Amino acid sequence: MSVETDNHDSHAHGSYRSYVIGFVLSVILTAIPFYVVMAEVEISLLWAMAIIFGLGAIQILVHVHYFLHVSIGAEDGWQFMSLLFTAIVLVIILAGSIWVMFHLHENMMPAHDTIERVRELQ
Amino acid sequence: MAPTDTTAEAPYEFHVFEDAHAHDHAEEHAEEHAHETGTMLGFWLYLMSDCLLFGILFAVHAVLGQNYAAGPSPADLFEIEKIALATAFLLLSSITYGFAAINMQQNNARAMSLWLIVTLGFGLGFLYLEYLEFAHLWHLGATPMASAFLSSFWILVGTHGLHVTAGSIWLVVLLIQVQMHGLTHENKRRIMCLSLFWHFLDLIWIGVFSFVYLAGVLL
User: Fold this and answer.
1) Is A113 at the interface with chain B, CB within 8 A?
2) How far apart are CA B37 and CA B102, in angstroms?
3) Letter string b/e over residues B84-100, b meaning 16 or more CB atoms within 10 A of that residue's CB
């Protein structure tokens, strides 16, 4: 195996350095949301959710870059394109389901709420 | 570049280069990853479809996750300390697999096998913690039949656990393969596929602990 091939491989499949960077970032991004929940930090629910989901999303990107080694050029771009396509479909599935079902829940009020509403109408 | 036995048949060269198994006859080219695109891209596409499967299970949990049917809620059931430990195991197994992949690139079969065994240890540790949690929930009566929240919880976390189980079995099989045949071209390809699979499972777990456990306990 030539030196040149070695360099190419370490670029394509990561090096100790890149794995350690990814690992340290992941540990930090995991520890913060766990700390927020376990130590019952005094912040509003909205902020807690923003921290959990925001850092979770960043950690997913860290994994994609440092562990899965996704790059725009790999496989003539097909790897990145399929990832992008999957991400778009996922956003549609998740946002669509939550949006539709949330409104469905609102329209299916418990019986006593419906009775109150009918009384107000009379 | 071309394998010597095919140079006389120039019109077929294209097919030879497209064939991932072409190197069975040309060991000296075994290091050229450019010809592996077929298998690696195919496996990547499988992972993307698996990602959609998990995405749908996450959507189900988003919709049903708060329908407790007068049963227990996440705050009653989940022990976040144990989830933190399971998360640490999975994250550690990811970096040890990375070290195994680096040693594989350097043709260091022995160090690679050791790192893979460490990875397997963390994977099995994760599975053991998950088994304890499931057994505990079942004992409490928090079965999939108890409420819509628990149904979607068991199917989502259970599917992830099944994937980790399959990955662990695959890892054992690969370790045996490497012991029997050494770091052959085919074994390297398989180890790289499992590498993608293993890191992918860790990525899915980020969604599970954030969304199901941490957010679940707060809501």
Assistant:
1) no
2) 19
3) bebbbbbbbbbbbbbbb
What type of residue is A17?
R
3-state secondary structure of B78: coil
Interface of A with B in 30-69 (CB under 8 A): 30, 33-34, 36-38, 45, 48-49, 52-53, 55-56, 59-60, 63-64, 67-68
For A80-110, the DSSP string reads: HHHHHHHHHHHHHHHHHHHHHHHHHHHHS--
Which residues 44-63 in chain B show a CB within 8 A of chain A? 44-45, 48, 51-52, 55-56, 58-60, 62-63
B210 at interface of A, judged by CB pairs closer than 8 A = yes
Contact B94, B198 (CB under 8 A): yes
Q: Is the pTM of this model over 0.90?
A: no
Burial of B106: CB neighbours in 10 Å, binned 0-12, 13-18, 19+: middle
Q: Please tell me which of the candidates A64, A67, A76 has its beta carbon nearest to residue B98.
A: A67
Single-letter amino acid, residue A86 = T
List pLDDT tens digits, range B72-125.
Answer: 989 889 999 999 999 999 999 999 999 999 999 999 999 999 999 999 999 999
A72 three-state secondary structure: coil
DSSP-assigned states of every residue in A10-70: HHHH--HHHHHHHHHHHHHHHHHHHHHHHTT-S--HHHHHHHHHHHHHHHHHHHHHHTS--
ipTM over 0.85? The verdict is no
Contact A93 B102 (CB under 8 A): no
